[in-house]
Amino acid sequence: MPQNTRDIRRRIKSVQNTAKITKAMEMVAAAKLRRVQEAVQLSKPYLAKMEAMLADLSTSAGYVKHPLLENRPVKRTGYLVITGDRGLAGPYNANIIRLALREFRNKDRASYVIYAVGRRGRDFFVRHNYPIGGEVIGIPDIPTYENISALAAQVVESYAAEEFDELYFVYNEFVNAVTQRPTVKKVLPLSELPTKEASEGGLRAQYLYEPDPETVMKSLLPKYAQTLVYQAVLDAKASFHGAQMTAMGNATDAANDMIGRYTLQLNRARQAAITTQIVEVVSGAEALK
After folding, report:
1. Do the beta carbons of residue 113 and residue 131 sit within 8 Å?
2. Ranges for all domains in the chain classified under CATH 3.40.1380.10
3. What does residue 168 show for φ and ψ, rounded to 5 degrees?
4. Which residues of the chain have pLDDT under 70?
5. Helix, strand or coil for residue 180?
């Protein structure tokens, strides 16, 4: 610990500069979080309408044979693991990697394949020789569907081609700005499609399909599965910005606490120096008598 006043002042200045940086990063993360939440809200009507059409199609088309709907014997499992490209977000990335490793425990590496979204997760799995089937890194802070469409299409096509028999999302589910829930969610096969009552709130729209409901449904199912991938990425991005905002807020609070302790130490050092000077003056005056 610094003892003289010059060292203490230098340390206080350094911590103050750090506090300014973490405060600015907290505000930037909060702004990005609001924008991602807006993107989530804008994408919900599209997903809701797609679910409404699937609900109507599942009734109109009757039984439809499609790879995304089939429950197959599980020989290989796919995992879409979504982490961040950067750190400074508390345990955000570590929680997801730890959760994924828990899923892989006691499994032969030939029995699963990983699709990595985010540099932190991708680097970890590559470094430890885990099976990577696809990846995407460098996704913008406010992702668009184009940023994830190639990987989403690859994942859905790989499942349809029976390269694996079930798909799980491993990501942080956004609850609120301070709470992100590490989640493992089974997505494929699409064994439970939305019902009309759930998707339309009981209001049944009338659709006319060309050439026929079965053909439209077979075309719509892959797009629906790819949209679920995009929704998970949006959710994970909102969670990342929330985690970063919380982490930077905690760092700013810790820096302010440290400044308070150093200020107290500075005052004590100054008081000790003044007391020493007074004692020296009094001692000198006594010696002159």
Report:
1. yes
2. 32-245
3. -120, 140
4. 1-3, 59-64, 192-207, 279-280, 282, 285-286, 288-289
5. strand
DSSP string over 191-206: -SPPPHHHHHTT----
Please answer whether residues 202 and 115 qualify as being in contact, where contact means their C-beta atoms are separated by less than 8 angstroms.
Answer: no
The whole-model pTM stands at 0.81
Q: What is the pLDDT at residue 125? A: 92
* Cβ neighbours of residue 276 closer than 8 Å, sequence gap 6 or more: none
**Burial class of 23 by CB neighbour count within 10 A (0 to 12, 13 to 18, 19+):** middle
Is 233 in a helix, a strand, or coil? helix
Residue with tokens 């750190």: 87
Distance of CA 16 to the CA centre of its chain: 29
Name the DSSP class of 167: E
Question: Which pLDDT value is given to residue 192?
Answer: 65
Q: Which CATH architecture has domain 5-27+247-281?
A: Orthogonal Bundle (1.10)
CATH topology of domain 32-245: Pyruvate Kinase; Chain: A, domain 1 (3.40.1380)
> Residues spanned by CATH 1.10.287.80 within the chain?
5-27+247-281
> How far, in Å, CA of 244 to CA of 92, rounded?
8
Tens digit of pLDDT for each residue in 174-226?
888 788 888 899 888 887 665 554 445 544 556 677 777 777 778 888 888 88
Q: What's residue 43's pLDDT?
A: 83
